[in-house]
Amino acid sequence: MKSLNSRERDIMGKKDMFQNKKIKIFAIIIAFSCVACMMPNTLSAKAASSRYPNIYYFTTNAANHSINLKWKKGYNPSSYYIWRKVSGGKYYKIKTLSKKYHSYTDTKVKAGYRYYYKVEVNRKGTNYRSKAYGITLTNISAPKLKTLETYTMTNGKLANKLSFTAGTDKTYMIYRKVSNGSYKCIKTINGKAKKLNSFIDYSINKNNTYTYTVKAKRTGKYYTQYGKYDASGIVSIKDVPRISNVKVTDLNNDASTDNIVYTDETQEISGPSYTFDQVKYEIYFKGIPNMTAYSLSQFCKPNPSCSGYWNGIDKVSGKNTYFDYIVNTVNGGQTQFKVQGIKTVSGKTSYSNTVPYEADLY
User: Contact at 8 Å (CB) between 94 and 73?
Assistant: First the structure.
């Protein structure tokens, strides 16, 4: 075989290089062709999924029997159709909405039933309907309002303490309305199921009347459920009963006095120096309208006849404005009294604020 000279070898080498480049270019073209073939399928799958409106959240309200559903926008809608069925039934179109809406509240539902919904994109050409999503309108009962007490804190400001009994839930929304206003949620608290819960409202003005109610709340990954509430609520007592006159009598006949010094600002009662064994207090006070009852409490600095804390000692009808109370005391004993208004409506009891007054017997 004839050997190739150097020129011929160079020519053959260049031919091989060119052939290899052609092979590589052809392989790249095939690879891109495969990718190009695959891309339309991938894109069309994404496009198809985005065409369908997706229901992503439910809110139910047992108080007004409603279910709200929210969905993500479908592809090029001219409007939306809302479809609904009751568990075990068939779907009916219940609403047509403008394309600007992405939520709907269904008020024709009943507690205890499970409802399924679909949202359909109405458009020119092919319509797209979402998957079915279900939710039960749970009948969550209203917490029972028990007491509401207005009191003065150590810093001189007012507060309202609300107590209520809970059901099986642990999250509660506290609603308040001021005077003749409307309810507004002022706090969401974590309570205790099946126990007495309480909430203290520190933002109180003495010139206003406050009404409170409580609503239970349940949450899940795709839903929020609100329970029923007592619409009439429990109402605070704005006014305060005040002492108008007090008479002190020594029942052992060591001494008696009518020269009681009473000052409305300090509400102090004092008399001459006596040694009392048994004393009768006759307490007259100015009442407030529509009370069910009034209670009388006593506090005295610790001594042989007094325990050193507030103690309820008497109760009279809301029509009364007078207490008489007999107490054993000793020389130098000091005591305080306070009268509190009580109003009970439908098992809910409100307590007024009090103004203590001091009686010093020397």
Answer: no
Phi, psi of 166 (to 5 degrees): -100, 165
What is the CATH T-level fold of the domain 54-136, as seen in this structure?
A: Immunoglobulin-like (2.60.40)
Question: Regarding beta strands 158-165 and 268-270, do their DSSP bridges make them parallel or antiparallel, or are they unpaired?
Answer: unpaired
Burial of 354 (0-12, 13-18, 19+ CB in 10 A): buried
User: Is domain 144-235 in CATH 2.60.40.10, yes or no?
Assistant: yes
- Could you tell me how far CA 253 lies from the centroid of its own chain? 59
- Give the pLDDT confidence score for residue 329 in this predicted structure: 61
What's the pLDDT tens digit per position in 53-81? 899 999 999 999 999 999 998 888 899 99
Residues 6+ positions from 118 with CB-CB distance below 8 Å? 55, 82, 83, 84, 91, 129, 130, 131, 132, 133
CATH classification code of 242-360: 2.60.40.10
Q: Which amino acid is at 33?
A: S
Mean pLDDT of 213-239: 96
How many Cα atoms within 13 Å fall on the side-chain side of residue 169? Answer: 26
pTM of the predicted structure, to 2 decimals: 0.76
Is the confidence at residue 254, as pLDDT, over 70?
no
Asked whether the beta carbons of 96 and 81 are under 8 A apart, the reply is: yes
Helices (H) and strands (E) in the chain, counts: 1, 27
| Two structure tokens written together for 192 | 């205790």
Amino acid at 197: N
CA nearest to 157, candidates 200, 198, 199, 205 = 205
Neighbours of 186 (CB within 10 A): 14
Q: How many other CB atoms are found less than 10 A from the CB of residue 283? A: 22
Distance in angstroms (rounded) separating the CA atoms of residues 263 and 357: 10
| Nearest-angstrom CA–CA distance, 292 and 347 | 12
* Per-residue pLDDT, 3: 53
Q: Which residues sit opposite 317 in a β-bridge?
A: 293
- Quote the CA–CA distance of 219 and 59 in Å, as a whole number: 9
CA 162-241-206 angle, 5° bins: 55
